[in-house]
Specification:
The protein is mostly beta strands. The protein has strands at about 5, 10, 20-25, 35-40, 45-50, 55-60, 65-70, 75-80, 90-95, 110-115.
């Protein structure tokens, strides 16, 4: 059974950093791309970042240069280091495996950036 649990969110002021964590189990983690996706209030999801088995990473333009995604195959965890947060980053963040990027299996973790 696939098990994903996100954590690390919070309510912070603009300019602050947060680090999200996503331990995963129940599938062949080291062979799949892993993604962070966010859902701001309102309809629609926004893809944020991806890490691939070959070490490649990709970022949405909106977070490039501020966010860093990492994967840790030894403990099946994906992290998202978020720096220079701004109010536009406010959203529910969740991680998803390749092939089901739009599916939130875990609870997600809320990030709220407000002064």
């Amino acid at each position: 059974e696939v098990h994903i649990v996100e954590s690390g969110g919070g309510m912070v002021q603009p300019g602050v950093s947060l680090r999200l964590s996503c331990p995963a189990s129940g599938f062949s983690f080291r062979y799949l791309g892993m993604h962070w996706v966010r859902q701001a209030p309102g309809p629609g999801l926004e893809w944020v970042a991806a890490t691939y088995p070959d070490g490649g990473v990709q970022y949405a333009d909106s977070v490039k240069g501020r966010f860093t995604i990492s994967r840790h195959n030894t403990n099946h965890t994906v992290t998202l280091q978020m720096n220079s947060l701004n109010p536009e980053d406010t959203a529910l963040y969740f991680c998803a495996r390749e092939g089901e990027i739009g599916t939130r299996r875990g609870p997600g973790t809320q990030v709220t950036v407000s002064s």
